[in-house]
Amino acid sequence: MSTIQRHPDKLADRSVLLIAGTGGIGKAVASALLSRGAKVILTSTRQAKLDDTVSQLLQLYPEKSASHVTGYTLDLGSQSVEDNIKTLVTNLKKDGITKLDHLIYLAGDPLPTFALEDITLESWAKASQVRTISCILCIKHLIPFLRAAGPATAQCSPSITLTGGSVSDKPIPGGWTLLAMIAASLNGAARQLALDLKPIRVNTVAPGIVDTDLWSGMDEAARNKLFDDAAKTLPTGRVGDVQDVAESYLWCMCDGNVTGEVVRTNSGSLLV
């Protein structure tokens, strides 16, 4: 007869790098990780935003030392993005960080919608750079840190989690072609990488409508109307909250039996 075992805390003392971790979902994931005893490493394009996020997190968790939350600048939108990633790698090593247990890629520009007739090669490339091209380049240069974490065990199974969107499953009228293609490509990339990088696990979290700064391009009244209208049709009765969505990332890290999956957190939007 099997015996009941004490459930392990699989995130305690684990090092987790959140690429572009100073947005709404990133902050929620970082907060959840700190609550579970993990060590959080953040990147952001702007030093001021990075400093502010680190400061807020340390205020929320005063029992944590500064070594539990660190940050580095990383510009994913420039033409020199690969050099920028190499600089991040150099700085991590310089600070004694030689292994990572988990990597989370959260980067995304404010949602760029285009009518089909307005799509150009330039707009296509710009929409793809941060969300897909820079994502693959980050994995390319950071995979040695995950391999250095050692073989997968029941206590810790190294992972990469990408961030897609529910538009890959459910089209949205009005200029979402590029974003649907990008989201679908991230789902495919995670499945392929799960094979290519095994036993490192790779998954994608696909949020639906979530109240984050990704909607900052809309004025407040339009944004509130969008959320209110959506809430009337969603089975949960509300749009997603970043703390809800953070749980999906934690699950991808903690469940060593999941890889090559798309984790959907979308208020039930695929049902209506």
From TrEMBL:
It comes from Neophaeococcomyces mojaviensis. It comes from the Eukaryota. This is Uncharacterized protein.
